[in-house]
Amino acid sequence: MTIRRKLAIAGSCFLAAAILTFGVVRWASKPPQAVRLLPEGELLVYVNLKPLHFFDSKTSNPVSPDPDYQAFIDQTNIQFERDLDQVAISMRNPGAEAETSSIFRGRFDLNKLQSYLQKLAISSEKYGEKTVFSILHEGRTVRVCILADDEVAVTNMASPEPMRSVIDKFRHPARAGQGPFLAQSYYPYVPFFSAAWLVYRTPSQPGTTQLPEGLSFDFLQNTTGVVSLRLPLWFSGECKLKAEVFTENEAAAAEVAESAHNYLSLYRSIAQSLGTKGSDRDISKAFDSIQVEQKENRAIFTTTISQASLKKLGSAAQIGIQEPSSSGKNP
To answer: Model pTM?
Structure first.
């Protein structure tokens, strides 16, 4: 083989590797498709449940579904903790009066789900070749749309426009772009292979609840936080939790870091005075391992969480996720 031919083959391999690398980086830099469909909000949450399905659940105590949730399972053949793979949520006005838009991806029995929605709906409409079901729940209109065999959208907003926006983005992916503003601006700071993450913009809130020793959470006002959870390799070991708080300048970041140090000192002092009876041992260990540092206009918090703690949180979420199924009661 001539030198020229060897150089040509090496050049072709290098070019192919460069193109592949560029494609992977470009793909990884985009928020998940479910997030890109969401409307704007002050809080974005994404959870990839697929890795959690690999955790050994034999040591976990199964949670018995409440009657309403069991009725939902019986009518739809959908069990959230078993069938959901991804959840993406955008929330406006986080709190008691929050308005949310959610995308659920997983495995659904479409015939049963559609029959269930038709039974509950007070009305339905066609939009973009999709059917939107309107259901009254706790004084609000909840809209549900089956986007695809494995994807369902849900909103609880007064206006139908957020749901229509989701449908438009689903039918025309180019309109979704990089997703909502928070995803466009802060997703690059989410570590690769994070199983869950959230981005939250904390507005100015006068009268924040005061803590002992004159402390409060005022230091988080007018900041944006990016919180991410990474599971251990091969699902063996501890999980990594990271939070980055973005502020207007370095001085504000230094204030956040100092206030966080004071808060952690207060917590540890109280925990020490209460002893082992005062809190969950795994949670205490996570708090004790928190590290705080400042980089430019960011305050960065890192800690480790045991798989036992994660399973406890999962059990709590399993209980909490049963609540929406109470809408399964006949209106």
So the answer is: 0.80
